[in-house]
Amino acid sequence: MFPFETIITIDRNLKLPVYRQIAVNIIQAVRNGVLKPGTPLLSTREMASLLNVHRKTVIAAYDELNAQDWITIIPRKQVHISEKIPLLNPQKWEKEKQIPPYQNSLNIPFVEVGPITTPQPTDSFHWFIDDGRPDIRLSPISSLLKTYRLLAARKSVSKKTAQDNTQGTIRLRIELANYLSETRGINISEENLLITHGAQMSIYLGACLLAAQKTSVIVGKPNYPMANKVFNQLNAPLVEVAMDSDGLDVDRIERLCQKTKISVVYVIPHHHYPTTVTLSVERRIKLLELSKRYNFVIIEDDYDYDYHYSSSPYLPLASAQHYGNIIYIGSFSKVLDPAVRIGFMVAPTNFIAQATELRRLIDIGGDMYMQDALAVLIQEREISRHLKKAKKVYHQRRDRLAHLLQQALGSHVSFSIPSGGMAMWIRFHSTIDIQELAETLAKNKLKIGCIDKTENAFRFGFASMEEQELEETVDQIKQAIEQLIQTN
Amino acid sequence: MFPFETIITIDRNLKLPVYRQIAVNIIQAVRNGVLKPGTPLLSTREMASLLNVHRKTVIAAYDELNAQDWITIIPRKQVHISEKIPLLNPQKWEKEKQIPPYQNSLNIPFVEVGPITTPQPTDSFHWFIDDGRPDIRLSPISSLLKTYRLLAARKSVSKKTAQDNTQGTIRLRIELANYLSETRGINISEENLLITHGAQMSIYLGACLLAAQKTSVIVGKPNYPMANKVFNQLNAPLVEVAMDSDGLDVDRIERLCQKTKISVVYVIPHHHYPTTVTLSVERRIKLLELSKRYNFVIIEDDYDYDYHYSSSPYLPLASAQHYGNIIYIGSFSKVLDPAVRIGFMVAPTNFIAQATELRRLIDIGGDMYMQDALAVLIQEREISRHLKKAKKVYHQRRDRLAHLLQQALGSHVSFSIPSGGMAMWIRFHSTIDIQELAETLAKNKLKIGCIDKTENAFRFGFASMEEQELEETVDQIKQAIEQLIQTN
Fold it and tell me: Is 1.10.287.3510 the CATH number for A141-153+163-383?
């Protein structure tokens, strides 16, 4: 009998369960050509005794090997290495026993996308100030998934799979067209809609189709960094235009247009990222006029439209009398859960058709059950009810945060209360350096998601925190500031 | 009192429910400036009587208007148009009452991705021969979603959202690294893995990083069309190399390498799309040698590895002694459900890092609950058990289809039985024109998903059909052929 003890080493300190260690060892031995096809294995009892493990462990290992076709189990419990082994000419393999680590040895140039973001391990933080995310404890995600399961369980396979869902399911697009009409005054048909894998994909698709002209793209300064990165990756010349409390400086855009060809203006009209300011009515109207006169496309990234509190929201530019040159972008990730990546793009039909073809190349399309489940939630008003509820809660949290900041940090910070959205933009006076503050907080296991060193500011996402959590967080910041002042 | 009957028209032929018609009409009137902020509405009883609808319908309409903040309901049931209306300077809007349709008026050039695929409406088909998809009636998707709900319901918000999941959740990558080692002999760490939104995204990302060199890319002829489209979109020069029953003609690749710089060879080693042939062992070894000698990258699209029946599967090229220049692509869409879009890419760490950054620009990342739910299913062996079961069923279906084709269409077709996968490649003799056949079948409401006019062939996805469905489908094809022969 084959000396199995020589090929099976069990290390109880490994995370891999013992039964899998046995299975993996046997597979490796077959791969190395040490165990030949047809070799009989010990009975489970014998093997258990040999390896000094419970017999159930060996049964589990054999079950696994059998599931993967490495062994054949014949009725009266004879077990042997399968005759049909997935082997690729084992002789060749024995030449070099050790497979080299699959790392960094690619000696062929590839396009570099940019500096690598090495995420810090989350385990090292106890708490996180996000950049404006919903409180998933309030989200109707459970209802969404219940609907998903119902839809996926319907057994009408064939006709369903025949559908071309790259543009998004027809059901979701019809419901969404109604929803956008009712909530935003955007009157479109389902042909003006492309369902995307989140708002970012809408930005990416829009930029790919528009920015390749190598004419300039105008963005705010500061701007949503992930939009800038997309334009940079496409080699589109970026022109930064200052932001003030009324949003993008539209007069500056006019002067730029007089001098140079502008192809795209990227604008976040509500609760701008990161500054949270809202574009004023006058500037909206002027921007629309400029877009006609100078023939540029407006990418209107309205990711945050659904959340407005004290003041009335403005209708999107896309709902106005425009000239077929607005790409409107929105998302349900801020409504449901950042993990649920359903966004959309509203644009003229010919643009949507091309964006759909590009999207097909990227990932074929989205999850049709998830899309239809969302359609059901929209149709049954569950999304509206959730938003109404969430708005009340977030409104309170915003006001609570403003109060706490004023009380605890009043002398160190300045901020204005945003009319909506999920985050506040906190600027520090020059006595406090935001980078130093973030480092001090990181030592206390609190991580800040979005800081801006130039503006000496950070985004405080209040929506995801309950009032007590807000209090504790502001208190931690206060302590860190006191610590900083003492040290400096 | 305002003459509401003049602004509310109910059309019972519309699909829009009556209560929503009422709500939409009121919203429009507010938007047009006809109904001013503060205007009182009729009580629900009065309005119901005026419009001749049930009072519950009006209550639903008011609830909806209230949910959207268009009206204010004061305790004793006084209802009026909200004072805080989302209006953008209504005077300006009245100039042009009719919002133009949002269509085709974009007069700015954009990059065209390609000819538009106009999908035929599915309603017009009763039945569909797909190009090789799993039978979702067998899929463990319900178990996946149950796990998803459990994971999403855990209320530890903050630390979770702090994670950077663009590369895929750490949990799924660790489980997948184990799974790939056990099932495919690919020994990697989780840093060699990028979780993508389906295999197509892996192709897209790989091609973006590699094909921009403007040196040639080798593909099979025929090839998976969506891969060719990606390379075309990136302006990579495509060189087509013939396929025979052993797969890509590797000698031809060698001769090409001697003449010109090749940067990428895209290969589908198992059950090639569309022809279903498998690359032979000898050619695999030679391809690896060539990749070293001529310094090209192999994109190994092994979308179908999990399904092999009669003959032994070969281990992937990526499991062999290679030179850090293989991008290995796989997917769980064929295991679970085409709607569940989880694929992966295995590559050297520096390549994975850049692919991750590019993926971040495209869509930030995937659904982390879905990924963790899949990790749980892999860990608990549910995926292995499902595959074992599904393989048996699909094996039977493959053999049943081969038998049916031989019996019913033997004199008109030629095909070889694929060693695995989910589809058979059926070539028609020159007496039958595949295009004509497809049109005849379409008249009988049967649609074929993948036909190739040059090869006069189509892919018959057998995995998704039960045996009786296979019989009925083959019978329909037989009848259509008889019809064709009679007419010609």
Answer: no
| Domain residue spans of chain A | 4-94, 123-137+385-487, 141-153+163-383
Interface subset of A 239-278, CB within 8 angstroms of B: 263
Q: Per-residue pLDDT averaged across A480-488, rounded?
A: 90
Q: Which CATH number fits domain A4-94: 3.40.50.1100, 3.40.50.300, 1.10.3720.10, 1.10.10.10?
A: 1.10.10.10
The tokens for B338 are: 């085409």
Residues of chain B with pLDDT under 50: 87-101, 104, 158
The CATH architecture assigned to A123-137+385-487 reads: Alpha-Beta Complex (3.90)
Task: Give the residues across from A219 on adjacent strands.
Answer: A240
Q: Nearest C-alpha of chain B: how many angstroms from A153?
A: 7
Q: How close is the nearest chain A Cα to the Cα of B227, in Å?
A: 8
Residues 6+ apart with CB under 8 A from A16: A24, B178
- Residues B182, B251: Cα–Cα separation, whole Å: 32
Q: How far apart are CA A359 and CA A167, in angstroms?
A: 8
Confidence of residue A212 (pLDDT cuts 50, 70, 90): low
Q: CB of A77 within 8 A of CB of A32? A: no
> What is the H or E stretch that residue B195 is in?
strand B193-196
Q: SS3 for B466? A: coil
How far out from the chain centre does Cα A385 lie? 25
Asked if A388's CB is within 8 angstroms of B67's CB, the reply is yes
d(CA B168, CA B373): 12
Asked if B340 has any chain A CB less than 8 Å from its own CB, the reply is yes
The rounded distance, in Å, linking the Cα atoms of A359 and B201 is 10
The residues in A 6-25 lying below 8 A from B, measured between CB atoms, are 16, 20, 23-24
Q: What residues have CB less than 8 Å from B161, skipping those under 6 apart? A: A128, A130, A133, A136, A338, A464
Closest of B338, B169, B340 to residue A148, by C-alpha: B340
Percent of chain A with pLDDT over 90: 57
- Of B265 and A304, the structure prediction assigns the larger pLDDT to B265
